[in-house]
Amino acid sequence: MTEFTFDLLATDSGSAARRGRMTTRRGLIETPIFMPVGTQGTVKAMLPEALKEIGAQIILGNTYHLFLRPGHELIRNLGGLHRFMNWDRPILTDSGGFQVFSLGALRKIDEEGVRFQSHLDGSSHVLSPESSIAVQEALGADIIMAFDECIPYPASREYVAESTARSGRWARRCKLARSQGDGAALFGIVQGGMHPDLRAGSVNELLEIGFEGYAIGGLSVGEEAALMYEVMDNTLPLLPRDRPRYVMGVGTPENLIEGVSRGVDMFDCVMPTRNARNGVLFTSFGKVSIKQARYLADPLPVDPDCSCYVCGNYSRAYLRHLYQSNEILSSVLNTHHNLHYYLGLMQGVRDALDGGRFGEFKKDFYRKRADNPSGT
């Protein structure tokens, strides 16, 4: 029996934004929430203690990567992913579908599942709805995802319809494969490409099956932001009010604010961590490319309005020096700052919803960016 509940605490009078709380077997999660991505059992360049310090409530692990290395059975035998990586708060695992389908010529899809070659050594493997659920349960995740195909963009309507129908059949198999005594919440994933009618059909099928939460997949795959928001506008109102809504793989700070405005409760994305390793920092006034020469002797913190450890102790000049010198500390400090910004942004959203001022918060978010169009 699942140990998962979702309570809706407040709504915004001027938008579809909502404030909620998820209860999992490893603690509460206040929503809306951003989940740092810990693909291979670690959020790159971050200690678990540092993640807690900056307010991470839940992190995401990747089924595909952990299945291949070091192996889900090894992790199970060592006490599960939480103990393996020393993280005692909730973990969500994706199904592995996105990574498998991104392998291109190295994989073959059929009704049974996906046959693929490992990107590590070329060895052959199969992931099916049943094995994806088995791997996620072996890892011990608190929220697990149904196995689906992340449809590429663009794609023909015929392909999207065929893939969406297959993902629906896979979702039923995932529900049947789930261990009743495991305690993890199982989320279904809405597909349908950019077609409103196919999205609606996917929602109806998932509602018939029944899940603890619902995700929108197949976004942030190359489409313009306006089209992403259009899909959200068409799909989110179809999802049940009393279940969490998760948009997968999204995105920029602007994407998060717009998603919250449309009723999204959960987000994840590699953007803050990946950009940090490439010298791009997120701030209240926009992005800063710390590698630029104009920061060579700049004594200011990255964001004077930021309360993180990095902005309280280091200058732009020092961060630029670390990046230009290819020092490991560059990734550590940049990642700390970026995740602090993302998690702080969502804390600000929650506080604004609690206080009935989300509309004001959103206007202020965009005003600061408009006042600094060059991102300096």
Layout of helices and strands, plus pairs?
Layout: E1 5-11, E2 18-24, E3 27-31, E4 33-35, H1 48-53, E5 59-62, H2 63-68, H3 72-77, H4 81-85, E6 91-94, H5 97-101, E7 107-109, E8 114-117, E9 124-127, H6 129-139, E10 143-145, H7 157-177, E11 185-190, H8 196-209, E12 213-216, H9 225-235, E13 245-247, H10 253-261, E14 266-268, H11 271-277, E15 280-283, E16 286-289, H12 309-313, H13 316-324, H14 328-354, H15 358-371
Parallel strand pairs: 4-14, 5-6, 6-10, 10-11, 11-12, 12-13, 13-14
Antiparallel strand pairs: 1-2, 2-3, 7-8, 8-9, 15-16
Describe, in plain words, how this protein is organized in 3D.
Its EC number is 2.4.2.29. Substrate binds at residues 94-98, 148, 191, 218. Zn(2+) binds at residues 306, 308, 311, 337. InterPro entries: ArchSynthase1/Queuine_TRR, TGT, TGT-like_sf, tRNA_ribo_trans-like. With 376 residues, the chain is α/β, with parallel strands linked by helices. The chain has two domains: 5-269, TIM Barrel (Alpha-Beta Barrel); 279-368, no CATH class. The protein contains 15 helices and 16 strands. It has helices at residues 48-53, 63-68, 72-77, 81-85, 97-101, 129-139, 157-177, 196-209, 225-235, 253-261, 271-277, 309-313, 316-324, 328-354, 358-371, and strands at residues 5-11, 18-24, 27-31, 33-35, 59-62, 91-94, 107-109, 114-117, 124-127, 143-145, 185-190, 213-216, 245-247, 266-268, 280-283, 286-289. The strands form four sheets. An eight-stranded parallel beta sheet has the order 4-14-13-12-11-10-6-5. The chain has a three-stranded antiparallel beta sheet with strand order 1-2-3. It has a three-stranded antiparallel beta sheet with strand order 7-8-9. The longest helix has 27 residues, at 328-354. It is globular, with a radius of gyration of 20 Å. The mean pLDDT is 96.
